[in-house]
């Protein structure tokens, strides 16, 4: 029998051994669930917002898509300032910039050794300039990531559509990805094949977009040159969200099954059981067009619209790629700059004070009862820690208790996506005057809460309530939920003076030149593919604006011809062209008319997107 000191020593030893054994029984981390992001994708997720800069010969021809036969002498900006681009994007909260190094016309903003159709044959800087270099250096100076857009379709190159062009395309990729420093993304437009100059052939060429570029091999080469970038494009590491309006679906999975030309709905929402991690990127322009057009100076998105776009993209598990068209002088327009900077300030103000960090928090269940996975990990502002439940527990909740009744109108949640996206649906309840009130996303359809997926980040906006507690419940998940962060905020009202611009800038943007009343054709359709317009009097007209019919792709005009007549008998062709990118960006399309006096105009649709009757919301002749 143990007595005295020996007895107490034995007890102490037993306790020490027990504690040691407990410490050794560390709670295991959750297993991955489904596809998971690679290191490049994880870095990309954290960027959230970055800028697109569209600049090319299109800037000087007032077009969206160049034909490939443009004169390189047109490229001669008087005040190109890449540092102004970078400074503006930095102040607008952007984390990086993607530049259209080559758009569909084939003109290169760097002195490529593989073509003469580049800045080296432009008068700008006597052919010694390099826009890509200037912006890469400016991004480095301002602490921004840098990336390039390289159009696979080249309407200038004589070999487009043949195997030789793919070699040319890859050679240009190598130039861009090996000479301008580290890049975070490379962007491949989905527009491929069609009419073009093609070295003088002036013809239409079609390709099999699924096989022509041999993307698997091309992607392998890209990662050899740039191991840390993510690829945006067809069946790539990052996906298009299915629209150019800047929003993702309320339900948005980062996973998808690769397929060529995926349906818009699939791109918008992803697929719950998709086999590949390919998160969505929301690309949209701050103006109606992607390239600069001075008639859009008064059509820049409002600050409220830009803020809403942020919540509907970044706040829905996607990224926001916001485009700034570079002006003919070579700068970001001051109106665009002011609106974007104001957007950043508003978002910062709305999400400035995380009220969750000032509340007590309690979880309905904690994985293994471990402090490593407890509720506090969801409010420690770290993306490397998370609250987790036991395996098999897919319904659980976190409850925040405020010290006093608190106004709230924003909720943010993040999953620990390194182990996969899991949450399928959740709910939010606020304790108001002693009663639990269910909250819903104010942008959700009537009768729906809109609270489904979370992913990297989900932000829910709702009308202000004064709550003493907030309960966040995971209702359904593919595996035990892993919540990295939650935030609760009270966003102030948008200030009326969010944008302040010099009077001279506003006056110029809204300047109205004296002109007769325009002739307008209201909503309609005509068959099969033409409409005659009686202008009521013979005089000189300067422009025709085609406004696509809302809510449908039937009857959208892709290619057109415009004819003039004085008697409805003899018609003279004035010009023809295409309404570029109208499928993805169905906004008003304005055509400048030659200064010829006429009484009648005929708009002929030589190619429709869908259907056999031309349709319009309005046709306006000025």
TrEMBL record:
GO CC field: lysosome
Enzyme Commission numbers on file: 3.2.1.51
Superkingdom assignment: Bacteria
Enzyme class: hydrolase
Keywords: Glycosidase, Hydrolase, Signal
One BP annotation, GO: glycoside catabolic process
SMART domains attached to this UniProt entry: Alpha_L_fucos
GO terms, molecular function: alpha-L-fucosidase activity
The UniProt record lists the keyword Hydrolase: yes
Tagged with keyword Mitochondrion: no
Protein name listed in UniProt: alpha-L-fucosidase
Species assigned in the record: Hoylesella shahii DSM 15611 = JCM 12083
Lineage: Bacteria, Pseudomonadati, Bacteroidota, Bacteroidia, Bacteroidales
């Amino acid at each position: 029998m143990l007595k005295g000191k020996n007895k107490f020593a034995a007890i102490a030893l037993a306790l020490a051994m027990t504690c040691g054994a407990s410490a050794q029984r560390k709670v295991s981390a959750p297993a991955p669930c489904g596809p998971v992001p690679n290191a490049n994708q994880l870095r990309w997720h954290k960027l959230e917002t970055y800028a697109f800069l569209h600049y090319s010969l299109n800037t000087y021809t007032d077009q969206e898509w160049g034909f490939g036969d443009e004169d390189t002498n047109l490229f001669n900006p008087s005040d190109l300032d890449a540092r102004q681009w970078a400074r503006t994007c930095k102040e607008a909260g952007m984390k990086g910039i993607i530049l259209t190094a080559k758009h569909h016309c084939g003109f290169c903003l760097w002195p490529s050794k593989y073509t003469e159709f580049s800045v080296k044959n432009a008068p700008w800087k006597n052919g010694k300039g390099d826009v890509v270099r200037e912006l890469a250096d400016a991004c480095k100076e301002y602490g921004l990531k840098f990336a390039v857009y390289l159009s696979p379709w080249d309407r200038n190159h004589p070999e487009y559509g043949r195997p030789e062009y793919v070699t040319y395309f890859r050679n240009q990729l190598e130039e861009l990805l090996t000479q301008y420093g580290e890049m975070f993304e490379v962007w491949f437009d989905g527009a491929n094949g069609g009419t073009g100059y093609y070295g003088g052939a002036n013809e239409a060429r079609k390709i099999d977009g699924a096989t022509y570029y041999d993307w698997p091999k091309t992607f392998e080469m890209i990662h050899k040159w740039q191991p840390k970038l993510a690829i945006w494009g067809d069946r790539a590491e990052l996906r298009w969200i299915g629209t150019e309006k800047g929003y993702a679906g309320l339900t948005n999975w980062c996973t998808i099954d690769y397929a060529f030309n995926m349906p818009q709905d699939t791109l918008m929402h992803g697929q719950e059981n998709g086999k590949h991690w390919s998160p969505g990127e929301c690309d949209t322009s701050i103006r109606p067009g992607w390239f600069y057009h001075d008639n859009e100076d008064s059509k820049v998105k409002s600050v409220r619209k830009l803020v809403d776009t942020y919540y509907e993209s970044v706040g829905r598990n996607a990224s926001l790629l916001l485009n700034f068209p570079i002006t003919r002088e070579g700068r970001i327009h001051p109106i665009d700059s002011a609106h974007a900077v104001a957007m950043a300030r508003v978002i910062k103000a709305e999400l400035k004070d995380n009220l969750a960090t000032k509340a007590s928090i309690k979880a309905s269940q904690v994985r293994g009862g471990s402090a490593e996975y407890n509720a506090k990990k969801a409010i420690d502002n770290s993306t490397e820690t998370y609250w987790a439940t036991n395996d098999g527990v897919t319904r659980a909740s976190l409850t925040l208790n405020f010290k006093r009744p608190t106004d709230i109108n924003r909720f943010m949640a993040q999953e620990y996506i390194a182990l996969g996206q899991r949450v399928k649906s959740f709910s939010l309840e606020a304790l108001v005057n002693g009663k639990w009130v269910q909250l819903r996303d104010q942008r959700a359809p009537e009768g729906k809460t809109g609270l489904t997926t979370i992913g990297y980040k989900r932000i829910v906006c709702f009308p202000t309530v004064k709550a003493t507690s907030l309960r966040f419940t995971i209702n359904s998940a593919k595996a035990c939920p892993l919540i990295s962060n939650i935030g609760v905020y009270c966003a102030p009202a948008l200030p009326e003076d969010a944008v302040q611009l010099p009077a001279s800038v506003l006056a110029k943007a809204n300047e109205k030149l004296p002109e007769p009343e325009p002739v307008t054709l209201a909503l309609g359709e005509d068959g099969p593919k033409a409409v005659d317009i009686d202008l009521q009097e013979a005089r000189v007209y300067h422009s025709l604006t085609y406004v696509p019919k809302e809510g449908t792709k039937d009857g959208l005009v892709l290619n057109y011809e415009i004819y003039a007549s004085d008697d409805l008998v003899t018609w003279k062709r004035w010009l023809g062209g295409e309404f570029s990118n109208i499928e993805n960006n169905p906004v008003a399309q304005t055509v400048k008319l030659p200064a010829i006096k006429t009484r009648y105009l005929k708009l002929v649709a030589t190619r429709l997107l869908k259907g056999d009757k031309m349709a319009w919301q309005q046709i306006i002749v000025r």
